[in-house]
Structures are given as structure tokens and as C-alpha cells.
Amino acid sequence: MVKLKLGLLSLMLLVIANSIQAQTISFEEGLPKNIQFKRGEINLSGLHRVSGNYGLHWKFTPDDELRIKTKIGYAPQSVDTIVTVNDVDYPITNEPAVFTLPIYSEKKQDAIVRVSFGRGEKTDCFIDIHLVYKGWRKFTIPYARGHMRGNPHEDMDFMKLSILGNQEGEIFIDDIVLLKRESPKGIKPTHLVLGLKLHPQRRALGDEIEQEWHLYQPWFALQDRVTPEQQQFFKTIEERLWQLEWGGEKTKESLPTKDFEDLKKRYTDYNITRNGEAINGLHLEAGGKRSKFNQLGKAIAIAYRTISNISQKEVLKDMALNMIAHGIDCDVNLDWYHGRGFADMCFLMKDDLKAIGKLEEANAFIRRKYEFNRFYNEDVNKGRHNVIGMSSDALYTNSIGYLMCVMLLDGPEKVRDMQHLVSYYSNLGLGYANGLTDSFKPDGSHYHHANAALTRYGSYTMPKVAEVIYILSGTEFRIYEDAHERMKHNLYMRNFYSSRNYFPWSYSHNRIKSLTPGDNYEFLYMALAGTPDGKQDIDKEIAEMYFYQMEGREMPELAASLLDKNIETASFPQGHHTLSYHAKGIHRKDDWIAVIGAHSRYIFQKEIWGWHSSRGNMKYGMFENWGSLEIIYPDKPGLKQIDNGRGLKGWDWTMIPGVTSVNAPLKDIENKPLKLGDDTYQEHLRSDQAFVGGLDFSDGNGVFVAKIRGHDKYKLESFYATKSWFSFGDLIVCLGSDIQNDLPEYTTHTSIFQNDLSQTDFNLKIDKTKALKPSSFNKQYDETSHWMLDSRNVGYYIPSGQKLNLWYGENTSPDYQGKVMTTGTYEKAWLSHGKAPDGEAYEYAVKVKTSKETMKVFAKNQDEQQEYKVLVKNNTAHIVKHLASNTTAAIVFEPQYQLKLGKIKGVSHSGIYMLKEENNKITLAVSDPDLRFYEGHSNDVDLALNRKELPGYSNYWHAANSIPSKIKVFLDGDWDIDTIVKGNGTVIQQANGVTVIEFVCKDGLTNEVQLVKE
Length: 1014
What we know:
- With about 1000 residues, this protein is of the alpha+beta class.
């Protein structure tokens, strides 16, 4: 065992060396002398093999045995490295020992092979394989994970294959791996291996359970025939598939010689040969090989279907049919990213497969690989009852494959299976998923990896989902209206929460800056799919958003049908929206966006993967979602990132704008992914604070709150802060209270801004209309009130009694991966809270896209509290009144029956409240920011309530629904509900001059009502 002391919070990315080497039995050198058989017959054969020229052919008889006498070399899983971070030891285990046994069966055989291991004549462990299949199957089984019966022993010296029962037959075996170390998470249950269990830490907690799926049967009624109308619908679907997936069905004479020869050359790389009915070739183990194989097959099939040259067509047809046969024979995996293309190839070659009697076999294969039978049962999803949702990966990578499973059929079964597929997609796949599961949420968030993934997976999945909706639109098989409406809402939010070409940094899933949104095909497809009720062929609202997103950019040919519809371009979205499932608040006015980034006990602060470091994974993302305020202007021509004032060169990672944090050395706050259990190196740290979320008022104003606590892993568990943001038009009032920690070695601060000046001239002003001189400075100002206008024309008002600091100059820091030092020119402002603060607080106001004249007037007015009033800022509540709109917003941290806030006398529950009074009418909004996936303690704390780090999918409440809370608001006077603006609200009592209104709050969403005097 190795013990590594990494120093205080230093980087830890370890590659654990396996203590055992893979041991493979090959048959290229002839029959090994240590192989014995009881009866039957064994010989070398080139007919079916995994690699090389030969495999083992075993003709078995009833009760036959095949024994391989050799030292297995088994060693149990163990801790071989201990990593010490912050004086805490983290044991790092090697992967468990597994064996791999590829078996080829030329036909389905009702025979069971028992695979056993032992010492001398003693059997230590075994597992049974049912040969009811045709082709290759590779069985990978852990020795000591409960899959095998018995207990493996380190001295095992034989492997034995025994035929159970009175059966005879034959199988082919090649490249037996007696021992290697491999993660058991990728080992999925199959009905062929009796007793193989699902790994408890599978990504979706109860992921794909094949034992049940293969038993499901269709239950939709089978009609007598396919009607002419339905035949036309299927023709329309096929035409759209050609249009979107296969480049258009335009026939040409022939392929250019260069292209034709290139396809032939790439085909020869797979060494596919035939020997009668037997087919051989390169086995497609690695994902990259599968992907290239499947995409090549698709390209060959498209070429075959779109040329008329007979000689070329014959060559292309033979290649495509051989690739289909070889893929089926070696059981190529079609699921996930590397499987795309094979099902397309099968459909494009449908008539030719039918002509040689292979269509049924091909369709049965892709249906098995895509586990199509899942769509017959909507009551059980991911192995659980009453669970909604579908993997983002599956929606993105498999949706076209699922359609191919239907399109390969003929007759009434085709109609029935399309009905099942559409029903499952509508009710489950495009439904609002439970808890942290994929993919869609009622707030508009998109989920993957147990957290919101708006930038990466949302950008992949939503265009594919929209494509499917368009492909099926206008037919009997269109997506259900409510599902279509949900996806339209998802697009509305997608249009709202990003700039045209870039996403905010705080959305970045596992990268330091977010990916660009892409080409916005999701908007185009959904516009062409028509309205959710099916009454309009074009959804003009979505088309307007598409034109807004694509303004100034070239649009594809498919968009031409929208250009003559007299559709206007949508204006910049306006208002306030909370992404409760992402712990984000978004406020938009005019052409700018303000984004608040936080995290909670449900939503982790950042997703970090050790293996992702070469693909943009961040190293200093600790504070990004500790209450950041990111102010974004419209995309600037020539700027290849979002215009948020941030830069990657010389960025101060401890001064994220809006964040309250500590000025710790970077070595102390590096993200350090650890290997947790069987999972890969990762970090998914959550807070233990539930009160994080917002309220969205119908007039475009809103509130966001975040209780922040540092994590034990980095010795920041004593750090607490309560932060809030009150947004009224172009004004954002920022409050903080209860700031405390026991970290005397660090200074605690709240960053106001940090602007990269590589794209903007220095023009910072404070208290005067004249800019400061552009020479390096670091100043602390007196504790009177101040106003500032930064170089991005964002204004700030700082009330008196606070320690304001301004800094300008060059800053040097590591790049986001910690690989090189970088330098940039910045202006920074922050409020200092000293060392080890105890109950510190702050207040400042932000005016976005303003001027020096406006700020001078605003500061003068606010010195006399003529713009807004902070009524309460402590551990019981944060309350602000905006005078111009006569609106009061209250964040209440505990029940307060004597609140006395305008017409509100009291509230029965912690929550966020907003009240606007106008003559004899009031508008009241309520939300409970706690998603409440569980109550009490999670499984990431021990009995002493110390937090431990868990893999992202390992919480028991992972798939739990948000628990509703009932909130009563007590109003002074007799009031009736005139309009329910959104959500719900009910008058449950009027007595003694008090009206009691009850709201049911769920999912962190806002309820709003308008009330009138009785």
C-alpha cells in the first residue's frame, strides 16, 4: 500500500496502477496443453473468432466439461493508495477482479454452461450462462461482487465450463481473459447470465434492467390493417428522416471515384470475410471503433440509396449487407454515443434485407440492443415504479434508433409500436423527471449527471428531441399535446436564460466557461412542428424566438419556409425567472442579463471529473456558485465568449463577482476530484443548506436567496453566509448577513466586481464624474456612502458603515487548469469583512447599464432612502421595499405571525413573499425555495453530522419528488382572489377582519394571485 501526503489542499489526480496484469488465453499458437475435456470434441477453428485466425470449437455432449488448468491469479479488491488531503485520509481502492469469456453460438440452444473456478478438485465459485442466443456474446463477470455463487480464493488454479443437463451442441470460444481489473459499473444485467445483478451505483440508480424489459409485451390494440392515411403518415416520417438525417433523397448517377474508393478502403479496415453463412471480421470492442464502423455503414447505405450506377450499387450493397451481418454476429453495441448509424443502415437497406430473408433478424437485433420492449410498460421506468424521465444520453443518441425499430416493421405492428413509442416519449421521456434524474424539470432546467446541464447535454439533447417532435408532427403519431407544451416551455426558458451565442459562466457544467448554444436547431424544429394543439402548422412564437437567436447569422435551407410567413423577430426577453433546479436566478431588462449562481444541499456547486482535465475541466471552480452575480451584455462582435467582463488570463479566482468568500491561497481551494468507491475520479460537493431559490413576480421583478456553507472537505465547514438579491427593473439590491467563519488565517470579503479590461478601456469612477487615473492602485475608502461606475457602465451604490476596497492593475494567476501562469489587466472592488467574522453583513445596490449622471442622482436620493428601504437584514428575514413601485419583498427564514408587512400580518412558513399594493387591489406572490427532496439528514453525514463526499448518484433521495409545503398568509382586511396569475392560491378563511390564503408550494416555483377588497 502506498500513502501519499499531498500537502494542504494540493492537487490530487492519481492513476492507480493495477496490482494484477490481464491474463488472456488465446488459440493462435494451437490448443494449449493445459486444456482438458471430459467427452465431446475440441479443435481449432477459423470459422468464428474474436481476433487473429483461430478460436476454440467445442462440440459438447450432455454433462460435458472443459477444464483449463492454470493459475488464475485472483486477488481481492483492496486499498493500494491512501491520499491525505487536509489531514484526512482517503483510501483509494483498485478495481475489482473480473473474468471475460466470449462465447459464440451458431443458433439458440436451450443449454446452460456453468463457469466455475476452484482449487484442485474443489469449486470455489461459479455462475451459469444460458445459451439461448445466436452470435457472439462477451460475458464479463466480477469474481467477488455477489454475482457469482461461492467465494473466490487467491489460490484458484482452474477454470471449468460444464454443460448442465441432457443437452448437446457446439460453441466457439476465443480470447478468454482469466483476470483483469475493471469497473463493475458497466456490467449490466442480462437474462443470459442467471443471477447477474445490477451495480448499486449505476448512473441512474435503477438503470436499465434487461431481465424485466425483455419480458414486456405490447398491449395497445392491434388493428386489422394499416390504413392509407397511416401509410401516408409513415411516408411523411420517412421523407423527414431523409431530409434531416440522411442528406435528402436526391438520386445522382454515381459517386465520384475518389469517394467510392474511400468507402471501399475504409470498409477493408474491418477485414470482413465470409465462409458460407459464417462471417468474420474485426471485433468492435472500443467505442471509437464502433462509432467509425456504424458511421461508415450509414454512409455506405446512404450512397447506395442515392445513386443509380449499377456496378457501384452492387459493391455498396454487398458492403452494407456484410456490415449488418458482421455487426449482428459480433453483437456490436448500439446504445449510447458510439452506436449511432447502425440502425439507420438497417433501415436504408430494408428492401435488400427483406430480399435475402434477413430483415426480421436485423430488426430483432436492433430492438434487443435498444431494449425496445421498455416502451411497452410505462408503469416501471429505470427499475422503479411511478418514475418519470429518460436519460439525456438516450434521448440524444438513441432517439433515431428507436424510430428505426418501428420503421423497419410492416403491417399493423408498425402502427401499434409507433403508438407505444410516442406514448412512452410523451408521458415519460418528455415528462418532468423525478428529483435529480434526467432530463426535464418544471422550471425549464435540463438535467444530466444528477444536476442541471443546460450548456453541454441540454445543447445536445434538446435539438434531437425537437427533431423527433418535428418528424412526427402533423401525423397521427405526433407527440401528445401536453408533452409538446412542456418542450415549448423548455424552449421559452432556454431563450430566456442565455445570450444569443453564449451561456453564462455559472451554468458551466464541468468546464470553466460554458459552451456556445450552437445553431439553435431546437427552435427551428419546434417552429416547424406547429403548435402543441396541432391547429397551426407553424408555431409563430417559437419561430420569433428562432429569428431572435439567429439574428445576424446565416440560417439553413430548412428555415426558408418560415421566411415568407410574415413572422417578426422576438425582442430581448424581459423579466425575472428562477431556475430552482439549478439554483440560479435570472433577471433581464432591455438587452442585458443578470445571473445569480448558487448551490444547495440538492444542487452541487460544480461537477468536476478527473478524466475531464484534458477537455477543459476546471481546477479553480470552488467559489463560482457561492452567490455570484454575473452581468451580461449583448454578444459583442469579435469577442469569442459571453460579454460578462470576465477573462481567463490573470483572473483572480478568489474574487468572483457577487460572491462572499475568503482570500485563500489557490492551493487551498483547488478542486480535487477523488475516486469514490467504484466511481471514477470526480467531485460533486453539495452544501447542507436547503433555503436556496427565488420568486418571480409577474411584473418582471423578482427575488433570489442563497444560504451558503463551505464544505468539510476543504476545511470550510465553519463558513456561513446568507445572501439575497432583490431585482426591480434596472436596480438590484444585494444584501448579506450572518457572515461567519473560524478561519483567522484568511480575510473574508464580498466581491462587487472584477472586470477584465482587455476588451474595455479603463473608465472607473467613484463619487465623481471624472474617471480615476489608469495607474495601478489598491485603495481602501472611508466608511461613508459611495457610488461607483465601473468601466462596463455598471453602477454601484455602497451605503455607509462598510469597508470598500478598489484595485486596478495587472494580476497574475494560473489558468483555469493550473497549467500555466497568465497575466491580465483588471479593475476590482470588494467589501472587507475582516478575519474570522462573526455575524458580519453587507449591503450594496447595482444599477445596470447606467451613467455617471444617473448614479450621482441615485446616490443622493438613496442617502435619504428615497429609492428603496432595507427594512430587515438579519437571521430572521431580509426585507426590502421598492418605493417607486410600492412593492415589498420579504425573505422570511422562519414562521412569523407578527410580521406586519403592509397588508401582510403574518406567515406560517419560511419562504419568499412579494406584495404590491395598488388602491383596492393587491398582488401577492409566494414561493418556498426549499426543493425538499428529503427531510432530516441525508446519507452524506455521519452520526456526528460531519459531512462526507459521495458520488453524484449515490444519495438515497436521488429520484425523490419535491415534497409540497402548505403556506398560509394572513392578510389585514377582507380580500377575495380575483385572478390566479400562476400556480395556486385559496382563500380558506375570512374572520375578524383577517383573510387567510393558503398556497401549496412545490419545485421552488412561484404562486401568484391578485386580490380585491371584498
